[in-house]
Amino acid sequence: MKKLFFLGSIIAPLLIGGALYMALSPEVFFSKITMNIYGLRQIHFEHNFLLRFVRFYFLDMLWAYSLVFALSFAIGNEAECSEVLILAAIFSVAIEVLQKYNIMPGTYDWADIIFELLAEIIAAFIIKNIKKEERDI
């Protein structure tokens, strides 16, 4: 059950994020190809706060949430939640710094770091509770 939950917590955010990314970011190469294959159309969101939040922050939160579960799953039970959280946080900050200095494609946004860290903390909290329940059983 735990493995299935972990795999779902890795895969589901990536699939949901990918679908939303295609709909909200048609200018991206990945989206152009996929939208042409499936005949999808862009969702216009310029004046919609919720869709703008989803496009610019929530998608990053999904990736960050998935990253924490993937790291925890890959490392195994011997890893403490705090260690996994620190690894994920370092990765998230590093990606944004690389974007800031144009070493990696993307747009630097300090708010991305905050929202990614929030998602990583939520994921680590969930993992910590799962591990605590296992110990208590």
Written description of the protein model:
This protein starts with a helix and ends with a helix. The protein has helices at residues 2-24, 29-38, 49-75, 81-100, 110-136. By secondary structure, the chain is mainly alpha-helical. The chain is globular.
List the helices and strands and how they pair.
Blueprint: H1 2-24, H2 29-38, H3 49-75, H4 81-100, H5 110-136
Order of helices and strands: HHHHH
The main sheet comes to: none
* Helix coverage percent: over 70%
Mean pLDDT: 86
Low-confidence stretches: none
Structural class: mainly alpha
Number of helices: 5
Basic shape: globular
* Strand residue content: under 5%
Q: Report the strand count.
A: 0
Key phrases:
137 residues, 0% strand
Brief account:
The chain contains five helices and no strands.
